[in-house]
Amino acid sequence: MQQHTTPPGQDAGAIVEEFLRLVMVPDPVAASRFVAPGLAIRFTGGRPMRQPAECSAFNATRYAWVKKKFESTDVVAGATHEEAVVYNTGTLYGAWPDGTPFEGNRYVDRYVLRRGLIVQMDVWNDSAEWLLVRAGLAAPWTTPGAGA
């Protein structure tokens, strides 16, 4: 795997946004330039993964296609001066395997970068709950105060 080294001063948030853009293309090979050896991924449902290609492969089973609409990318100090923690939040939009479009599916991603490379990635979103409703296994919900 080819490694990417961060130019001095490059923003950790920009690294994560470019990584996400490449994963959503999907181009997991290009996205791999932004990850460190030994990358630890914990995907939705606690699924362990090691490579961006595994994320793309999982998404291909869950969606006909999916993209992220970024709402916020926030960078905070990590455990050491060489680390940064990045939270990227927003919504997913795309189509389910049967072609039905969706949007507004909330997500939160958390990344730990060390020396400009992603060493840890955690992913949460509402897809599982939405799929339960689509399968008739859970009742649809309404926003409190939205009325019936």
UniProtKB/TrEMBL annotation:
Top-level taxon of origin: Bacteria
Molecular-function annotations in GO: isomerase activity
Keyword list, A-Z: Isomerase
InterPro entries assigned: NTF2-like_dom_sf
Protein name (database record): Ketosteroid isomerase-like protein
Taxonomic classification: Bacteria, Pseudomonadati, Pseudomonadota, Betaproteobacteria, Burkholderiales
